[in-house]
Amino acid sequence: MCSCWRLLKKSEDLKRGGLAVLFVIALLSLPTYMTGYSAQKSVEAMPGVSQAVIDLHQRSALLALIFMEATGLVVVVRALVLAPRDFSR
Q1: Of 78, 83, 86, 72, which Cα lies nearest the Cα of 24?
Q2: Does the first or last residue of the chain, that is N or C, have fewer Cβ atoms within 10 Å of its Cβ?
Q3: Among the listed residues 31, 9, 24, 15, the one whose alpha carbon sits nearest the alpha carbon of residue 71
Q4: Tens-digit pLDDT string for the chain (89 aa)
């Protein structure tokens, strides 16, 4: 187990790939969040749907969006400002 961790820790390609995946997820988070408004409007009229649950879901989604966009910003800063030579291959 320890030798696998050391191998993963030293792999620059794996680090770059992980950062790229986080960046793509951050990009996809915004349209995902935005489609929630339309879904909310269609679900609100259904019987048995609690407005409190909808509001909780909306707040949770906003919090997740904020954290994911912050993660994407960290990836951009890491890629463009702190270590541009790592991404120039």
Answers
A1: 72
A2: N
A3: 24
A4: 556 666 666 777 788 888 899 999 999 999 999 998 888 888 888 888 888 989 999 999 999 999 999 999 999 998 887 676 655 55
On the 0-12 / 13-18 / 19+ scale of CB atoms within 10 A, 26 is buried
SS3 81: helix
**In sequence order, which residues have a C-beta less than 8 Å from that of residue 42 and are 6 or more positions away?**
none
DSSP string covering 15-78: HHHHHHHHHHHHHHHHHHHHHHHHHHHHHHTSTT--HHHHHHHHHHHHHHHHHHHHHHHHHHHI
* pTM (global) more than 0.85: no
Nearest to 44 by CA among 65, 58, 63: 58
